[in-house]
Every structure is written in C-alpha cells, then in structure tokens.
Amino acid sequence: TLAERTNLAGVRHILLVLSGKGGVGKSTISTELALALRSAGKRVGILDVDLCGPSIPRMLRVQDSAVHQCDSGWVPVFVGQDKAIALMSIGFLLERPDDAVVWRGPKKNALIKQFVTDVAWGDLDFLIVDTPPGTSDEHISTVEALRPHQLLGAVLVTTPQ
Fold first, then answer.
1. Residue ranges of the domains in the chain?
2. CATH fold for the domain made of 11-157
3. What does the alpha-carbon distance between residue 133 and residue 22 come to, in Å, rounded to a whole number?
4. Measured between alpha carbons, how far is 102 from 83 in angstroms, rounded to an integer?
5. Span of the secretion signal (predicted)?
6. Rounded to an integer, what is the distance from CA 73 to the centroid of its chain?
7. Chain-centre distance of CA 116, in angstroms?
8. pLDDT of residue 90
9. What is the dihedral of CA 42, 92, 121, 71, to 10 degrees?
10. Residues paired with residue 87 on neighbouring β-strands, in sequence order
11. Where does residue 67 rank: exposed (0-12), middle (13-18), buried (19+ CB within 10 A)?
C-alpha cells in the first residue's frame, strides 16, 4: 500500500539483529550499534519487535515516554538531548513497562505489521530491528513485512557455548 512505501521511503538501510536463543545480547548489540552509528553522524532508528521482552526503552532511559499519533501514523520516541535516535517499542504501549505480553501469533503478527507500516520514521540512514530470541512467528512476520523494502542484512548474535 501507499502508506507502507511512504513511512519507510526515507529509510536507506534496514538491519535485523537476530539470534537462535535468548540472553545473548541482541538488545545490547542493537543499542550499541545505534549509538555507534549516531556518533558517526548517521540518522538511526530502532524498531524493537521483541514483544515479550522490550528492553531497549530501558537501556536508552526512555521507558516513561509515550507514543503519539500524527497524520502518517505513530511518531517514534526520540532519544537523547540531540534527539538523534528514533525508537518504537511495545514497551511504550503498555500501561506499566514491566507488564507481561501474553499474545498469540495473529495478534503479535498484526502488531509487527503495524510497526512496519504505521511508524513515521522520516529520513533515516539505518533502521535497526531488534528481534525476540529464536526463529518464531515474529521473525517471519517481520521479514515478510519488510520484504518490499531495501534490506541491508542481518547481524546474528551468538555465544561461544
């Protein structure tokens, strides 16, 4: 649809951060990558699709922020004094940041699709997508929703064991 093309039209590269298991540091890598790209002068966004464990808002100290609507969808939360990192996470949509999200596949998939199509990212050099652990519905939904767009690739986070 037109809205899908419009909201991601200004995003030059999309980078997925994935792993086969939990607790390996995907959110930390996503956050550090965003901060490094920002300090290199790039415009960066983070899309946190880890619906059951959205930790990036806390890592960037914006967990008390709220998401607002605009004509083209949701306005992401802008991080830091320079507002240089745009962030969207389910953490902003929960009444309390530590609330558990107990959803089945179709509802999760719909929210991921909505995150991809309805967030007004503006012009970004990089959109970093922090995914949940494993290779589940969320990953398939994310890749399917992003398929029409220019994907840079993926960072696979592993541990020695």
1. 11-157
2. Rossmann fold (3.40.50)
3. 5
4. 32
5. none
6. 15
7. 9
8. 84
9. -150
10. 46, 77
11. middle
Q: What is the pLDDT of residue 100?
A: 62
Task: Name the residue among 95, 150, 159, 155 with its Cα closest to residue 131.
Answer: 155
CB 49 within 8 A of CB 132: yes
3-state class of 34 per DSSP? Answer: helix
* Other CB atoms within 10 A of residue 1 CB: 7
Instruction: Tell me how far apart the alpha carbons of residues 14 and 64 are, in angstroms, rounded to a whole number.
Output: 26
Cα-based distances in Å from 114 to 26, 33, 93, 117, 142 = 22, 24, 13, 5, 10
N- to C-terminal Cα distance for the chain? 44
101: tokens are: 């999200």
The count of other CB atoms within 10 Å of the CB of residue 9 is 12
φ, ψ dihedrals at 127, nearest 5°: -115, 115
- Beta pairing partners, 15: 128, 153
